[in-house]
Amino acid sequence: MDGTQSVKERRDVVVVLREFLAAVQLPENGRLPNERDLADRLGITRAELRKGLAVLESEGQLWRRVGTGTFVGPKPPQMLDIAELAERTTSLQMMRARIALEPELAHLAALNISAAEIAELQALNGACRSAKNWREYEAYDARFHHGIAKAARNPVLLAMLDTLNGVRRAVTWGRPRPEGDRPSTAHHSFTDHDTIVDAIAHGEPVKAADAMRRHLQTVEDRLVGRMP
Amino acid sequence: MDGTQSVKERRDVVVVLREFLAAVQLPENGRLPNERDLADRLGITRAELRKGLAVLESEGQLWRRVGTGTFVGPKPPQMLDIAELAERTTSLQMMRARIALEPELAHLAALNISAAEIAELQALNGACRSAKNWREYEAYDARFHHGIAKAARNPVLLAMLDTLNGVRRAVTWGRPRPEGDRPSTAHHSFTDHDTIVDAIAHGEPVKAADAMRRHLQTVEDRLVGRMP
DNA sequence: CCATCAACCATTCAAGAATTGGTTTTATTA
DNA sequence: TAATAAAACCAATTCTTGAATGGTTGATGG
Fold this sequence. Notes:
2 copies of one chain form a homodimer.
Chain A (H helix, E strand, L loop, with lengths): L12 H12 L10 H8 L3 H13 L3 E4 L3 E4 L9 H6 L3 H22 L2 H15 L4 H18 L3 H20 L12 H15 L3 H20 L4
Antiparallel strand pairs in A: 1-2
Helix pairs in contact in A: 2-3, 5-7, 5-8, 5-9, 5-10, 6-7, 6-9, 7-8, 9-10
Chain A binds a DNA duplex (30 and 30 nucleotides) through helix 3.
């Protein structure tokens, strides 16, 4: 064979690896042979090979995962674990995230919403008003905001809001809840929702985004303890 | 046994089920026995049981999934599938999502970033400039934006940007890529990055958010075809 | 001290059996 | 015959087990 000598030649392992990658012309996300085989093929030891792979990995040329293999290209993103994420997230950080997302969603909704969806939003807002306990209110409130996101006609933003709500629910699971009393304290949210729906229904994106931002800001203020 | 008579008594299955749930006191997300066993224990037929479960499920008292079981409480949100999401998402929608997220991230980064992170951002921007091909440029660009998100100190927003980038990559996989030529066409991005880093480094959140918004807007304009 | 080799570890995947909710067919009984 | 209980079947999911893989450690020997 030809490879066994390259060790003695002291050629840098990284160079050998680059040549190999160029030779085999693997496609993006293509899989390299496993380390044991590849070390044999290149005529180098596995420890040496791993050093070289580490370099290429740090350069972002490839990525590795235990039990799976070594692949060309940047590391694919991991699907986020909602429960794990909720542990590292405070209620305030949740609100900052919502403030980042939802005004833009209201903006887009004002541009794309249908008549049926407007009616649904109004119905959900009414359901919020007549909720018999706090938990029921939160369920309708979540569906209200989800409805706006759906009307925005942007799958990515919708998915992100949904995961956001998932984290929100997981976060509130850990905290105690005022189970019995009705959400009379949230009466300001009702009028907030009204103005948001009105702006969206009249096709006024900027106004809708502003209303949503003010609404969430109020919730955040209340969360921090700044009662207006 | 005792249960076999309750069928003849014609007591409503739902009532029996509610009594059972109250008796066993399952915690939130607790799992019920499987339908065959439960039907035996309650002395009713499986079809009857399923009617009752359907009612409670529609009430949101519990949720079921094939192969898994029946559980107490509202249905947990599903983790989003990046590949599936990418199929329903256009490049333009991707940009709208980024414009919703990243200015806020730049804002927060300006408030929370450390000196080491500033240096890292500058280094990554430099790496963008000296990228030898388009793919390498995109890798560093992604790490640049990720660095800003990390400096924002908000796990939820960071996770959302990461999934966003995952979708972005999955979207661009489907499209052809200009493999060979260097990203000289993206030279305006370099100065954009400069102004963003400067604003963040000087602790000017509004300025940073504006710079980020303008930067992404330029990219979107270029995407749509409006060359400025 | 360093490189090499082997063994071991932890994670992941793949294939198949078992489990479970969902559906249809068959048997039983009034 | 109609209603209904019982069984069988279906499809999605989990569990189990073994193999494959990257990651780590330690013995061996220059």
